[in-house]
Write a structure and sequence with these properties.
rod-shaped; about 55 residues; mainly alpha; 2 helices
Length: about 55
Amino acid sequence: MSYICTRKTELGYGVMVTLQILVLSFQVRILVAQHKRRLFSRLFLVMMPKAALD
């Protein structure tokens, strides 16, 4: 009976680790997209003619 409880605990731990990995990869994807967007907007402002800013 203790073997079954140990296996359930290991399974629960494995599920938690897998969930953390998925959440982390999702967060990284969001941060990279935000970084690219900010970089692109800065690049756009630098390349914009001065007359368009007035």
